[in-house]
Amino acid sequence: MKINGTPYRSVWVNEKDGWSVHIFDQTRLPFSLDILRLTTQQDVAHAISTMQVRGAPLIGAVAAYGLALALRQDAGDTAMEQNAAMLAATRPTAINLRWAIERMLKALRPVAPQDRVAAAYAEAGRICDEDAAQNEAIGRHGLELIRALAKSRPAGTQINLLTHCNAGWIATVDWGTALAPIYMAHDEGLNVHVWVDETRPRNQGAALTAWELGSHGVPHTVIADNAGGHLMQHGLVDLVIVGTDRVTRTGDVANKIGTYLKALAAQDNNVPFWVALPSTTIDWTVANGVTEIPIEERAASEITHVAGRDANGALTRVQITPDRSPAANPAFDVTPARLVTGLITERGCCPATEAGLHTLFPEQ
Description:
Blueprint: E1 2-3, E2 6-7, E3 11-14, E4 20-24, E5 35-38, H1 41-49, H2 56-73, H3 77-88, H4 95-108, H5 116-151, E6 159-163, H6 180-187, E7 192-197, H7 204-216, E8 220-223, H8 228-233, E9 239-242, E10 246-248, E11 253-256, H9 259-268, E12 273-276, E13 282-283, H10 289-292, H11 301-304, E14 305-309, E15 315-319, E16 332-335, E17 342-345, E18 348-350, H12 354-360
Parallel strand pairs: 6-7, 6-9, 7-8, 9-12, 10-13, 12-17
Antiparallel strand pairs: 1-2, 3-4, 4-5, 10-11, 11-16, 14-15, 17-18
Helix pairs in contact: 1-2, 2-3, 2-4, 2-5, 3-4, 4-5, 5-6
């Protein structure tokens, strides 16, 4: 995707700078576009755990490069396994992280230690290329849903979409998942408008999704997290489309906290609720998302404090709760498959059921 006309991916390697890994610091957006240079696996682990880099597909790709950086220090079997385990433990909910590390190990274990660094960079590069291609395919399949909506309305009617959190190109290697169909619809000339949930407590919608859509010229409006149901009641949402950090083989969906409530409101108001994901986000080992998917509990300070820009243009944090009030901060919730209209994958769309997934992925 492009920033001010310049094409970027969300992660890239600088071969002339010690094969370092570069990412955008997502904690600084939308007010500052800062590029981080990562040179060790500790740098990568810190960036993932602090959410300087986030988004299920992207953290898997960055973690793959993190293992390549680790091998530059020690390419032996023991160190490789230890560093892989450390990277895989940085965040528990998104399955892409574990998938990418396991894929890297499978590719690297048969390789002689002296050849592992080159092999690791090559495999991480393939993971990135595949993610970009998968997300572009997701965009094409999701575009058909928006086209169908447009064809069912008088010509030129505005199509109102609602999304939660950030599932755009900054959350993947390129294109995004939930936002990819929206970009394609806009570029095709369809009259789309996006309701952007703020997504408390870290406000990824207000900060990242709004920044992405604005940079691309897509009409959008930022709303409070709890406004979505009201808009649906008044016929102002035609389609909900979100991303996900893990999908079970039965179609349950783990996504940013608050997604479940949007799905309930959508069902109550007969609004289609679609989830966009690459197949790397499917956890074929899990059947019940509510009981089996680990939910990350993040720092209470994300609830008690809010970050933003003050009147002087400086980035700052302010406290919004009483001194002695405790806070709980589950980062994700699980939307049961019964509330999901369907899944959009790189192979097409399907019902959010085990049978539906197997029609697209019979090898599983």
